[in-house]
Description:
The structure is a homotrimer. By secondary structure, chain A is α/β, with parallel strands linked by helices.
Amino acid sequence: MPELDEHTPVLQLNRFDQLRHFLTIDGLSCQHLTDILDTADTFIEVGSRSIKKVPLLRGKTVANLFFEASTRTRTTFELAAKRLSADVLNINISTSATSKGESLSDMLQNLEAMAVDMFVVRHAQSGAPHFIAESVTPRVSVINAGDGRHAHPTQAMLDMLTIRQHKGQFNGLTVAIVGDILHSRVARSQIRALNVLGAREVRVIAPDTLLPVDVESFGVKVFNDMSQGLEGVDVVIMLRLQKERMEGALLPSESEFFRLYGLSEKKLKLAKPDAIVMHPGPINRGVEIDSAVADGPQSVILNEVTNGIAVRMAVLSMAMSGQIAELAADEEVI
Amino acid sequence: MPELDEHTPVLQLNRFDQLRHFLTIDGLSCQHLTDILDTADTFIEVGSRSIKKVPLLRGKTVANLFFEASTRTRTTFELAAKRLSADVLNINISTSATSKGESLSDMLQNLEAMAVDMFVVRHAQSGAPHFIAESVTPRVSVINAGDGRHAHPTQAMLDMLTIRQHKGQFNGLTVAIVGDILHSRVARSQIRALNVLGAREVRVIAPDTLLPVDVESFGVKVFNDMSQGLEGVDVVIMLRLQKERMEGALLPSESEFFRLYGLSEKKLKLAKPDAIVMHPGPINRGVEIDSAVADGPQSVILNEVTNGIAVRMAVLSMAMSGQIAELAADEEVI
Amino acid sequence: MPELDEHTPVLQLNRFDQLRHFLTIDGLSCQHLTDILDTADTFIEVGSRSIKKVPLLRGKTVANLFFEASTRTRTTFELAAKRLSADVLNINISTSATSKGESLSDMLQNLEAMAVDMFVVRHAQSGAPHFIAESVTPRVSVINAGDGRHAHPTQAMLDMLTIRQHKGQFNGLTVAIVGDILHSRVARSQIRALNVLGAREVRVIAPDTLLPVDVESFGVKVFNDMSQGLEGVDVVIMLRLQKERMEGALLPSESEFFRLYGLSEKKLKLAKPDAIVMHPGPINRGVEIDSAVADGPQSVILNEVTNGIAVRMAVLSMAMSGQIAELAADEEVI
């Protein structure tokens, strides 16, 4: 999606180089990503408090616009917004006026007119959040909660937070991403974030049918074979297998897939002894990952979930700050 | 619906002549409507604040009872209630106990017993909110969010607020309402409000098939022809065309309808140069209104949306005050 | 369900003998139940205040996990949690990731990782809330909102609160429960609570086809005939008839059922003159209860609804306190 990401830096940063939308990892610097991780760290502490609430977004309205259903991601954004004291609107797109023939653009302009401050957007179409961010007024920030095969930047950042917690830094790390790279917006965002943050080597492990044609241009080393690809890695990221793909003839049977690309305890032994195992969830146990590994001592899968709330709190509050700073600067100019 | 509105004044006002339910424009005086507009004006300012919240309904519970689906109206009531700091319950009627054979009346008594303070009611049946207001305890206020073909009073009041913002006053104004008057609760409430507030002339423009038989008794001047009806008006209100009507043989094709009753830039030139264009939304672009007009300099369609939140905040808080004043007076009597 | 309830006392109480989950009446002492009723009494007052909110659960997150739809019970838990100032997540199970093949256990672990503090669980399977309570971390409390035919303890406690309000005490009371005992989790919990709280006699009145085989072991006196069973009782509790049962050949027609086991004014005369009439709702008027009785002076059905909010506030806040006390004690040990 290079044409999509070309102008994004301008779009998602304000004049002070602060986050103002959060659409993609592309175009963000190591410092930008590190700022997000550092801010998320402060919210980790909030989650363990007795009163898990801070007033940063009090009186702000966050609308969850999920054009593609996802209870899990929607729930984490809802919780993140509520713990920042925002009011949350869940708009069920399928029953809303768009189904009465209203255009998407009219619906968004209406939400702007209701003084909604942030749109959290998930869409099956790559680029939809960019399109929305380009068209909104200066009083709205857009957060990408996953668009088509393009990007899932908050998922990538929660993964980065999890890696930093367990490994201290990115320098010198070798990370393997295993599974359906072709259809994965998660993988695209992870690869970019790992490269920007300075990982030593990012590997992808998949059959050729599940790799994008231009995958090497992403800055990865490609492996078709798990035993070679897992050799000596610090981090193993398993992707969720969309079972629908099975029928598309891109894949052999589930059991065959597990034999070749599933993560078992035996295969995990090829990685470093202190390697961590990650998965964005929900898990298909016995398809891409063995239960013994998912629930084992090297798994940090549930840490990722906890970090998901903190990263989303960070991104929501930072984009809101960036919006406010930009508005204030606009007013001074006038 | 004259039989319906005959007793409403008694029903929707308390002994101090204050709003206590909000069911219809009928029976309200110019002063009542002006009070609503003035109160809404104060909430416009709240919507532009950094913290868009006031504690007027803190600790109160507002239940949205939408027997007819409407994401847009439900959302604006939900936002209005939340910005007044109320707790909001969205009751999905189709899945609630009424589908298990519980009577409507039992469901409402249950909500009363849960100490819900306000019911926001939308219903396909004309008069449903009146029926409910007649049966509730003194501890509940009912707000009509649209009933059948009868009334949509908050929509009418947000339109009045928008007109007053742009025209300063109602005296001397000529307002044209264009489209499907026959099926429009919005038009009925607008006509009444405009007459009470002192507009000079209210016109309706529609084919005879889309006009109620007794339309002249509403206090309007009837036009079948747009070029005559728009001549010299200050305000043009376009109604939404329910596309379902097309099939009912009440209407020719969409393109034919647009040719005759759609608002184009050319037709708009017949109105005063500073005329404003309104529409309750959602818009059918190219059916009842041209995009160039909907997005043009005379359109105040998005202002209507913003004003919708303010008017609903006004009505919710005023009806709650009216309820409290009445309860206090009841107690003194005892 | 004796095997289910054997270990529950250990499960639902913390080391200080305080409620920490609320799964069943079984294993709780008269003192435990009285504590719940006394706490609920204090919340009755909150419901009648102008600001119906207390900050007891501020910054806590309560997730409603309704695997079986129930707008009414879900609404009362949602209101109870909001009036305690908690954040509430309604998880629609049918559309959540469990339908994408995620296991229940993975879904719950994810919610724990999001720092959700309480799960309110309704499930068609008897024992599901127990199963969940056994598997959660020490940072989650589980409240049973009805499981299969097993238990509905908050319903039983709101009924006990209603009886105590009207009768002052349980000593010396004769209570009749009428209808489909066989399928009723409500009846099971009521019978247990009445016996623990010291009612003189608990009667069940039903045809043999609607009685569990071991019903006498519950500590009740069995009647097949209403005129004998209602003789001299202080409290009549009517159960909701699941109309689906009719087709299962367990029952004659609705009118035949009403003739034999419905509560009419005439039959009610057999009870004490000051007997109260209860029903968990929603009511099937004319099937298990006559409208004249349901709306009559002896009916306390709507009081039950009001008490339902207070009891749920009590149970939520007590279980949260029990959780916190246990966590604090755990930390001291370490």
